[in-house]
């Protein structure tokens, strides 16, 4: 079971989140009145016991001090969560699970980063391919422009030679 004790604060007119200095004495007895657990805990805690008898067990939570109750106007709030069944809580198993969860979270984060990097690489690859195609088209256009300019210059040169020859023929210089 898990429990938490809250003390009434007269000044705030509300229950305090925790009750410092206040402890709980937990006693568990079997149907045959055998005491299974008798232990003093703090203002919040967890207790567990194993019973080999079936039947109604009695769980008694008792404050270790009455002076807090008197000052608090006789008001205590106890939150109690009882789990029945086999709940073997090995602290090393819980810590191992926490470590596995932490490693799992880091692993998922790394996988997300890998996917992000792969997407960035694909994007850069596509941009490089587009740039290469544009460069090849530009180089091809420049080549054709150079050929067209050369043809224009040759045709103008031929036209000038023909015009000059016709001029010389008309003036009878040749």
UniProtKB/TrEMBL annotation:
The keyword Signal applies. Keywords: Endoplasmic reticulum, Membrane, Signal, Transmembrane, Transmembrane helix. Signal peptide: none annotated. The chain crosses the membrane at residues 142-161. Its main location: endoplasmic reticulum. It holds the Pfam family EMP24_GP25L. The keyword Transmembrane helix applies. Residues 1-84 form the GOLD domain. GO terms for cellular component: endoplasmic reticulum membrane. It is a single-pass type I membrane protein. It is found in: Endoplasmic reticulum membrane; Membrane. SMART domains: EMP24_GP25L. It comes from the Eukaryota. Belongs to the EMP24/GP25L family. This is TMD11 protein. It comes from Thalassarche chlororhynchos (Atlantic yellow-nosed albatross).
